C-alpha cells in the first residue's frame, strides 16, 4: 500500500486514527485526532477510503467483497432512508461503536467498552418505551458477538421482538427491535 501525505488512516489493533503528515523511508508520521504526531511502520496502518462509520460495520475491512457491499450501501443510502421512513415512520438508530459514544476510548479496557455500550443500549430501550418509539435499530458491528449477545439479553428481559436489521440499509452487524 502506497501512502501519501493527506491520506486518512487507522492504526491496526488500536483506536488511533488520523492523517498522514509525512512519509519517510522507514516510517510514516501520522497526525492523530488529538493533534499528536506519531511514527508508525506502513504495515501498521490501514488506508481509509470510505466513510469510517460504514467501514466499521464490517470485521474484515480488507475483504474485497465486504468493501463492495459497503460501497453499495453508501451509494443507496439516500433512497433506502426515504423508503424506510415513508413505510414505517420514525426509526431510532443507535450506533454502539465506541468511537460514537465517547470522545476517546484510549485507556478503556474491553470490559469498560462493553459496559458503556450495554449501558447506552439499556438507556435507549428505556427511552423508546417511555416515549413510545415503535422501532430502534442498534448498530453493533460484526465481531465476536459478545455485544450482540449482551443486547439480546437486554431485549429478552423486556420480552422485545428483535431481528437482523435490513442488510440493504445497514449492512452486516445491526439489529432491529420492535416495541
UniProtKB/TrEMBL annotation:
Gene3D superfamilies: 3.30.1370.110
Domain Smr: 122-179
Pfam families: Smr
Protein name, UniProt field: DNA mismatch repair protein MutS
Source organism: Wenyingzhuangia fucanilytica
Amino acid at each position: 500500500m502506497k501512502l501519501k501525505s493527506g491520506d486518512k488512516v487507522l492504526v491496526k489493533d488500536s483506536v488511533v486514527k488520523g492523517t498522514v503528515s509525512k512519509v519517510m523511508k522507514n516510517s510514516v508520521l501520522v497526525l492523530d485526532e488529538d493533534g499528536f504526531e506519531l511514527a508508525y511502520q506502513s504495515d501498521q496502518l490501514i488506508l481509509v477510503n470510505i466513510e469510517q462509520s460504514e467501514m466499521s460495520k464490517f470485521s474484515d475491512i480488507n475483504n474485497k467483497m465486504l468493501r463492495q457491499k459497503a460501497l453499495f450501501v453508501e451509494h443507496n443510502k439516500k433512497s433506502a432512508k426515504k423508503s424506510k421512513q415513508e413505510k414505517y415512520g420514525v426509526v431510532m438508530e443507535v450506533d454502539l461503536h465506541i468511537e460514537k459514544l465517547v470522545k476517546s476510548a484510549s485507556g478503556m479496557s474491553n470490559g469498560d467498552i462493553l459496559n458503556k455500550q450495554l449501558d447506552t443500549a439499556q438507556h435507549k430501550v428505556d427511552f423508546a418505551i417511555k416515549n413510545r418509539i415503535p422501532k430502534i435499530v442498534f448498530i453493533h458491528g460484526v465481531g465476536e458477538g459478545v455485544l450482540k449477545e449482551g443486547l439480546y439479553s437486554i431485549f429478552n428481559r423486556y420480552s422485545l421482538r428483535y431481528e437482523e436489521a435490513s442488510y440493504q440499509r445497514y449492512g452486516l452487524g445491526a439489529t432491529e427491535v420492535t416495541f
